[in-house]
Amino acid sequence: MVLDLLTLTAIPTTVGGAEAVHQQRLLDEDAESEDRKAPFHLHVYCDAQSKKRDEVHDSIVVLRDHKDPMTRLPETSDDGEAPHPFTGFYHPFPTSDLPHRPIPAPPILGLVSTVPPSSPNSSLSRPSPPYPTSNPTKPKLNWIYADKSTRELKYGPRAVAREHIIGPWDWTDDEEGLALDNEESLVVVEEEKGGKGWAVYWDRDDDRLKGIDVGKERRVLRCSLERRLVGEDEKINVE
Prior knowledge:
The chain is an alpha+beta fold. It has one domain (32-234). It has helices at 2-31, 34-37, 53-56, 158-161, 214-217, and strands at residues 40-45, 62-64, 84-85, 88-92, 109-114, 122-125, 141-146, 153-156, 169-171, 178-180, 186-192, 197-202, 220-222, 224-229. Strand 11 and strand 12 (197-202) form a beta hairpin. The radius of gyration is 21 Å and the shape is globular.
């Protein structure tokens, strides 16, 4: 009878395990759908009541490298190259770097972008037009993440990104605005006057970053980062 009981209890356990695997596959497939893989740029929409609004509204998000460690401002480039626009898409963050997750569990949807040729560990910023197209050859991709101490959005390789907030990223309900941790909680922070030094931060507590002193020291504007799908002539090769 003991053997019979053990055999009977093993049946629903096996079925439950198979169902969990099936559900996990469905979740993984949704996270890697073609819609989420479609590359896009990010434009800034700002309706803040501020005289600085026009410096950020209708601009495009770029990746800037090499911040000065003392001033925290992007270093001036002498090569004359245009800033590198965010050109990215959603991608599940590798589960091998996310231990102790139950099965089934929604994959943590990460965000990746092509990056400038020499880049690890920099930040997202705001450029002036015109905007360049992406390189037609296979580009290097980095993960977009929020620094766990400063909340600044940065980019870097997986080994760096996994130590910070790597997601989940997704769309707002209208599938236009960018959301982090299920909230459209991104803001821009003035790091250099004259419209040349705005950076993107994660305002997790919805207090304009006053809780971590950034909002007490610098101007913070609430905004929405909205997608513009990459044109056919800009498609990035990620295969």
